[in-house]
Write a structure and sequence with these properties.
Chain lengths: ~260, ~260, ~260
């Protein structure tokens, strides 16, 4: 299996699909998404980490690449039973750790990519490299002698961790999803003991609920979303609008003891 | 074959794709659409009924689920050569009748789904159930002893039928498609004898045409669309804007005898 | 392999997917894109020519069809190792020439398509014809005796070529891509000798760069894009907004000798 992910929208991913079908013999090719937030490496890294672990072992080609055409490396990463292919800008770091589990990801770089263009390495560098890894097997360094070499110092990327200040958890918004749900970096466990209670979000009381339907349509809520993190949401509405929050914003969560006014 | 349909947009469907690929051995997985009108069960039911019958026999996983995380059942429905998997909110009722043809759909429910989350049952309940049905064969009750039981009273959903009042057909807008075409619940046969004539829409004369190109670009027309229903459209434009109509609106169609001013 | 391309957005392409899966036995079905500019035959022809050559030999069903329901022909075109299926409006002409290479495309038309509807030939005419070609082999006239005949005079479509006026290249914008990059009809070779120099665009100096990252974020640049043509772009921004240019607009490129102020 070979998967494709990018921030390219449409129609450019079609060229990547064409390349991988042309350069593999029997690959099952699956689009993960091509609607990642445009040129936002951190958001791309988040979604890759959340989505790719649900797939069976595969070669994953992922491109969010504001530095296309510069001398940043093109990477091939062996992470557990998976192989990742993409630019060296941190995009692959969190998902590589996640897929590797107890092991350590092995990072390689293309020795001398000679792309046809300086503007579309998804088609000209990364898709062909992913197809080549798919065809030659999952230990690219062994089978790819000559076109890969160990990457000595790949760019790392780590998501911020929440802190505690004056009884509040000070977190950060990682992404807003297509429903408008505000996904924070605060672990869902922070709400243990407060399920179906009330917490404060930036000082205002908001009910904690098991699911969106736990409040009336249009009502705000705090919940543990599908990523395992604290999310700020509105039942059948948009949390980002209701809370006035977007990616990178700080959010203060008051989970101190208190009566439930929910 | 296993198909996926939802109102999730992107990127959440990727997790469902991952799950069904991971939990089946050789399924052909096809996306129907993930752009169904958001949390609109009736519109989702309409599109499923219109789209799924074009597919070969398959397991269809479909999710429009404003009640996610509540105690609504998760259904498995045998309908003709197809099996449907989705929430018990009426979404599957019209397509089940359509696919069953002369037969009666057989409705089952999951005995004890234990989802990881309360917010993403597409990934945690419905996709795994669809994969399980795909792997064990198309008579889920027989092969699924223990995890399925008959659903005694699944939620039904029926589209409104048009009425007649003072010589007019009083219908309702079911959906507006991506082109802006206004799809009503009025059967195309209502226009028999009026093809290439003029009818009235909410009192105003509009030409009936065989195809969009039957009027000048920008011109309004009434036609029988690809669903077999009366549609209100604009050649190379948007019918919803020109007629000022949206889903759920009443529309009065005057097809009484009269001269053709078209 | 059978590919699908259209301007249908969602969900109508699902019906085409259903039809081709139902009417073929083991086709690998790949979506190219369904987001082509709406009812814009020239833009569709451009994207098909840019995208389909990356695919392995396949049957390509492509629909941008403002004349649906009129008596325009439905075409089947043998072009090199590929076969194209779509409406006779020029959409297939440039890609047919491209895929045929040194050879000449062979143009056929359906003898008597009898579509169920006059509004959705993607589902009712073109997808079934593509499935039939896929099943019967790639020389449709030989295997399709009776349902195809030579098309005597298919609609042609050629992109405009740039001219020279008073030391400037006078070109035209062909398309704007999803990133906002303005793709012109001016060959990239026109910038030979001016790489990393400055040219004028409609009289204003703009630096020529190898890649988007060659200027500061927000900065304008001229580059040779992935189509091999001159593109006007903004690093991490939208070129169409910054240059005030859209499809069909004239653009004057001054590449005369001059000092580099880039």
């Amino acid at each position: 299996m070979l998967t494709l992910t990018s921030d390219f929208r449409s129609p450019y991913p079609a060229a990547m699909r064409g390349v991988v079908h042309a350069e593999t013999t029997d690959a099952t090719v699956v689009d993960v998404t091509h609607d990642l937030p445009r040129q936002d490496v951190r958001a791309g890294a988040f979604w890759l980490r959340e989505l790719l672990p649900w797939f069976p072992p595969a070669v994953h080609c992922a491109v969010v690449d504001p530095g296309v055409g510069t001398d940043r490396d093109a990477l091939v990463v062996v992470a557990g039973d998976h192989v990742l292919v993409g630019p060296d800008n941190g995009l692959l770091a969190p998902v590589a750790r996640e897929l590797a589990g107890e092991a350590t990801p092995a990072w390689y770089r293309l020795v001398a990519p000679e792309p046809e263009t300086a503007t579309f390495h998804g088609r000209d560098v990364f898709a062909p490299a992913a197809a080549r890894v798919h065809e030659t097997g999952h230990d690219p360094l062994e089978t790819g002698a000559g076109w890969l070499e160990p990457a000595p110092d790949p760019v790392d990327l780590r998501f911020p961790t929440p802190t505690r200040e004056a009884g509040e958890i000070v977190g950060e918004v990682l992404v807003v999803d297509a429903f408008g749900n505000v996904v924070t970096n605060v672990p869902g466990e922070s709400l243990d003991g407060h399920r179906e209670a009330t917490v404060t979000v930036d000082g205002e009381p908001v009910p904690v609920r098991h699911s969106y339907a736990g409040v009336e349509p249009g009502g705000r809520l705090v919940t543990v979303g599908s990523h395992g993190n604290v999310e700020l949401a509105v039942n059948r509405g948009r949390g980002d609008d209701a809370f006035g929050l977007g990616p990178g914003d700080t959010v203060r969560l008051g989970v101190g003891p208190g009566p439930d006014h929910g």
